[in-house]
Amino acid sequence: MTRWTWKPEVSSSGGARYQAIADAIAAAIDGGELRPGERLPPQRDLSFRMSVSVQTIFRAYAELERRGLVSGEIGRGTFVRYANPDKVPGSIVDKREEDLLDFSTMAPIVGEKHVKALRDMLAALSKSRELESLLAHRPIVGLHHHRMVGADWLKTLDLKASPETMLITNGCQHGLWVALASVTEPGDIVAADHLVDSSVITESMILKLQLRGLASDESGILPDGFAALCNRERVKAICVTPTLNNPTASLMDEERRRAIAEIARAFNVWIIEDDVFGPLLDQRPRPIAAFAPERSCYATSFSKSVLHSLRTGYLLVPEILMSRAISRLRTTGWMSNSFVAEISCRWLADGTIAELIAWQRRKLARRHSILDRALGDAQRTSHPASLHVWLPLPGRWRTGPFVEEARRRGLLITGPDPFIVGRDTDPHAVRLTIGDSVREDEDFQRGVETLARLLASDLEASSPAI
């Protein structure tokens, strides 16, 4: 059950606003107004109805979770907890995580091939004369040979990469944070797809930036919308994932990438390019950074194409930004993990990275084939090498009830709420991940067949129970 229009009655007494909201929700739980298993309103919706910031609602929900009254799950919602587990009915909240098929977590597929490669590499490292060099706590930008090998790899994408303008980060998200913090100041306007990775939304909130959503289609951000925004407001940067955008899986062609770069140059806008999914494509367009290197921060890693734990990020920035980027890198982690970076470096040099990525593409192609057979003509946006699928819902469904019903049937999927910039319209679609969170193909097939039945069901879904 979901209270889509419910909001707490908050007293006007003094004290922190988030505490008052938490107390009011706690009182509603104690009084039976909110029952165990009910989902609280999405933070964005409740903040709008109460005329408070999303951060205030976030802190209120965090306080309730600290008290043990609710349980929050990213991308799925916040639910009232059962005080006595023995009384929990067979519903969406009593299922243990291991009883659910997780189609909500983004991670590449892993097999015995990865385990063997890692075991062999750790054995080689233990005998290496270079092991001692990995104990150093400088340079902050990463060891020189790590940057050199990374730069050589990025040159194959037609990028002007060199060790002098590269930083090794702890994954792509860390690199994007460093880049965004390097080119903006509080209050600056930043553009992004109107459906964007939730980390961009969170980073913008923490850095006190004004995030503006841009219209997009199956090829990504529409250049005309970007240009129109730049004509109206002083845009400082654009965050863009041109290859398999999360969550929409859109793929920007080279012509549009060039157009985005030209608009950014015309209006003096920094480009922050997230290419974490890029390695999954065998033939991919050149990065946007290749068309405007003087104003582009380009970030990528292997966490979505090889191993989720292989969190070596490569951040390429213009020389003019290096000093600021180094200071942000130092502040948010001092330097990257040299041991993980060494594994990435050696695997790049000996061809293991290329071999594991090719293996990943084959596995994902098989997953997409299973998905295509199960879903048939159901509308969706994806790519044979993508880790996720964007699935518009049939007209009778709303996303909240659909996500909850899917969970009741044993599936974890992600609604659009974490990805929506500002108060943009709910697109009535869900994101389905098809990677390692469901490792066995048999379980994957069972899950997507369950999803297909749900999509085709006659369940009265447009009006949630109150």
CATH level-four homologous superfamily name of the largest domain: Type I PLP-dependent aspartate aminotransferase-like (Major domain)
Give the class-level CATH name of the largest domain: Alpha Beta
Distance between the termini: 7 Å
Enter the CATH topology name of the largest domain: Aspartate Aminotransferase, domain 2
Structural class by SSE content: alpha/beta
Q: What order do the SSEs take from the amino end to the carboxyl end, as H and E? A: HHHEEEHHEHEHEEEHEHEEEHHHEHEEH
| Biggest pleated sheet | 7 strands, mixed
Radius of gyration: 23 Å
What does this structure look like?
This protein is an alpha/beta fold and 466 residues long. The protein folds into three domains: 17-92, Winged helix-like DNA-binding domain superfamily/Winged helix DNA-binding domain (Arc Repressor Mutant, subunit A), CATH 1.10.10; 101-110 and 354-456, Aspartate Aminotransferase, domain 1 (Alpha-Beta Complex); 112-351, Aspartate Aminotransferase, domain 2 (3-Layer(aba) Sandwich), CATH 3.40.640. It contains 14 helices and 15 strands. It has helices at residues 17-30, 43-50, 54-66, 112-126, 144-155, 172-183, 198-206, 223-232, 254-266, 322-331, 338-350, 352-375, 399-408, 441-456, and strands at 70-73, 77-80, 101-102, 166-169, 189-193, 210-214, 216-217, 220-221, 235-240, 270-274, 296-301, 313-316, 388-392, 411-412, 429-433. Strands 4-12-11-10-9-5-6 form a seven-stranded mixed beta sheet, with helices on both faces. It has a two-stranded antiparallel ribbon with strand order 1-2. Strand 1 (70-73) and strand 2 (77-80) form a beta hairpin. It is globular. The chain starts with 16 loop residues before the first helix and ends in a 10-residue tail after the last helix. 45% of the residues are buried. Mean pLDDT is 88; it is low at 84-96 and 460-466. It holds the Pfam family Aminotran_1_2. Residues 15-83 form the HTH gntR-type domain. It comes from Mesorhizobium kowhaii. InterPro entries: Aminotransferase_I/II_large (IPR004839), HTH_trans_reg/aminotransferase (IPR051446), PyrdxlP-dep_Trfase (IPR015424), PyrdxlP-dep_Trfase_major (IPR015421), Tscrpt_reg_HTH_GntR (IPR000524), WH-like_DNA-bd_sf (IPR036388), WH_DNA-bd_sf (IPR036390).
